[in-house]
Amino acid sequence: MTFPSDATPMAAGGAGPSGGRLTCGAGWLARARRRVGGRCAVCRGWCAGDLCGHCASRFALARPRCSGCALALPVADATVDTTCPRCRRAPPPWSRAVAGVDYGYPWDRLLADFKFHQRLDVVDALLQPLLARLQDMRGSGLRVVSVPLSRERLRERGYNQSWELARRLARALALDARADTLLRVRDTGHQLGLQRGARQANLQGAFVVTPRHAAWVRGARIALVDDVLTTGATARAATHTLRAAGACEVQVWTVARTPEA
Ligand SMILES: [Zn+2]
Ligand SMILES: [Zn+2]
Questions:
Q1: Rounded to the nearest whole angstrom, what is the distance from the C-alpha of residue 53 to the centroid of ligand 1?
Q2: Residues around the ion ligand 1 (C-beta < 5 A)
C-alpha cells in the first residue's frame, strides 16, 4: 500500500483542537519505512510494508459485512457487502458503514497502542484492511470528518486518534478532510459499561458542527471516521448532527467492528 507523502494543510498545522503534536515525527518515520521497508506491526518480522503477507492473510482477510452495521455476514462471497435482516428492518441513519476488521486480536492491541501509548507508527497497518474496502471511494468527493474528543480527553492524550485516521484515509483516497468539523460540546464521560439506550441518551446533543465549517458540511456527502464501531451510539449522534447541519449523506468508516457477543 502506498500513501502520498505530502501532509494536508490541516495535518501540517497540527495545532488545532485535534492536536497532532506527534504527527511530524510519525510522518517522517512512515516515509522512511516506505523507502527501506520495516517491521510488521503484528509479528515484528521484517517486511516491505506495515503488515507482512502472513499476518495480512491470517488477520486481515476481507469478510463480507453488512453495509448497515458492518457486522460480518455469513456469506461465502467476500466481495459483496449486503445488508443484514436487522438493518433492513431498522435502517441506521447513515447510508453505509464500512469496517476493516473485527475488533479482536491483534487489532485490539494495536488500537490500544495507538490510542493510549502514542504509537502513531502502527496507524498505517491499522488502516490497511479498511483502505482495501474503500477503493471505490477514491476521488468520490466525500468529505472526511472525524469523531471529536472532548477538550479534557484531548488534553490528556495530546492527539485525537480519529483525526489521525481520518486525515490519512483522506490523503490515501484523494478526499478533502477538515479537522474540528465536529466539536464535542459536552464531555459524555466513558461510554463503557452503559447499555445501548443509556449510551444513546448520554450522547444527545454531544456534538455540534463548528460554525466555520458549516458551509463545507451543508449539502455535502460526508465520511465520518472513528476507530471502533461498537453499539453505534457515537456514530448515530454524530450522524444526526451532520444531517441536521445539511449533509445529504453520511457514511461511517471505522478500523474495526466489535462482533456481537
Ligand atoms: Zn507479520
Ligand atoms: Zn446490519
A1: 7
A2: 40, 42-43, 45, 52, 55
The structural domains of the chain, ordered by start, are 9-257 (3.40.50.2020)
163 within 8 A of 20, measured Cβ to Cβ: yes
CA angle, 261 then 253 then 237, to 5°: 75
- Stated pTM of the model: 0.83
Residue-wise pLDDT tens digits, 180-234: 999 998 766 665 565 666 666 677 778 999 999 999 999 999 999 999 999 999 9
Q: Which ligand is nearest to the CA of 59?
A: 1
CA of 166 to the centre of ligand 1 (A): 24
213 alpha-carbon distance from chain centroid: 20
**CA–CA separation, 54 and 33 (whole Å):** 19
